[in-house]
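Chapter summary example.
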Amino acid sequence: MSQVGTETRMKRAVFFDLYGTLIEIRTDEYDPWVYSVLSQYLSYHSVNIDAEELKRGYFDGIRQHLEQSTEPYPEVDIYKVFHNIMHKYGSKKYSETIVLDTIMLFRSLTIRQFGVFPGLYEALVSIGKRYKTAIISDAQWSFSESEIKKLGLDRFFRLRILSSRFGFKKPDTRMFTMAMGKMKVTPDESVYIGDNPPKDIVGAKKAGMKFILFRSECRSYNGFQPDKCFNDYSELEDILERVWL
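The structure predicted for these 245 residues follows.
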């Protein structure tokens, strides 16, 4: 490949969704057992709340935050939800470390399936040699950052735009324009890969990006057509070669 060709490619950026695109995951936040265990754990930190009240407080905290937001696509920060619960029912002030440990325990109790999709690492190694890469995702920073590191994805994605840090989520175009700005690329130089058409294709296309759909029916959504579709990461490098043709 010529030096000019390499420089042109490196100006292009590939942005990924996280859950359902990079990470295959299934969780259950409604399981009463989760709140029973978490309630017992919190009692060791002098937070006296029973399982039913904890579950109700968690979902009520999310609902109240979303209702109070003025954003068209509001996002909650569950760090604030747990922080409020612990300080309401606890007998002292709790550090960020203790609140985060509580959240990560909660997360670990809810997970039923967790791992990367087959062939992902190999694809990211090849893609990273040719394009800039970053994550744009509706995700909770309080555990997503740890999960990204746990799976070794942090070495591929130094930039992570996570909705919970900003109070809004996809398909808000600010998620996409912010990421492109930080990566110093234009919409014409950018492609987004995601699995949730109502959020991913709509947001990316409105931001002027190309869009590749992962493991969903390859058709138009809300008037927007995917540029390419794929079901296996062994296909992705070739698809990226063709998406800008």
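To summarize the output: The radius of gyration is 20 Å.
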